[in-house]
Amino acid sequence: MTRRPRRNHSPVFKAKVALEAIKGEEPLIVIAERFDVHPNQITKWKRQLLEGAAAVFGESEQGKEDGPSVAELHAKIGELTMENDFLSGALGRISGRSAKR
């Protein structure tokens, strides 16, 4: 039995198949045969479409605010700069050939 090569479906194709499954006009098996995709894959795409539908209407902007703020990042940059300055000064005071490369 030969295996068929792995296929990469486009996002447009995935959305089309998932919308067909959401409509519910045909059983999942019929949709799977028509698009030549496994029914489990269609179920996964359908779930992803339903979970990501809120992002279409702007909910994704709230997710961007969860990251660190600009002020926090500037504070971290300052902290790391001070550490680098301190360590480079300490490295200069150490005697020995290997320290001054």
Keywords for this entry:
about 100 residues, mainly alpha, elongated
Description:
- By secondary structure, the protein is an all-alpha fold.
- The protein has one domain (11-92).
- It has 5 helices and no strands.
- The chain has helices spanning 11-23, 28-35, 39-56, 60-64, 70-93.
- Helix 1 (11-23) packs across helix 3.
- The radius of gyration is 27 Å and the shape is elongated.
- The mean pLDDT is 86.
Major sheet summary line: none
Approximate shape:
elongated
- Total domains: 1
- How far apart the termini lie comes to 62 Å
Fraction of residues in helices? Answer: 55-70%
A few lines on this structure:
With about 100 residues, this protein is mainly α.
Indicate the topology.
Elements: H1 11-23, H2 28-35, H3 39-56, H4 60-64, H5 70-93
Helix pairs in contact: 1-3
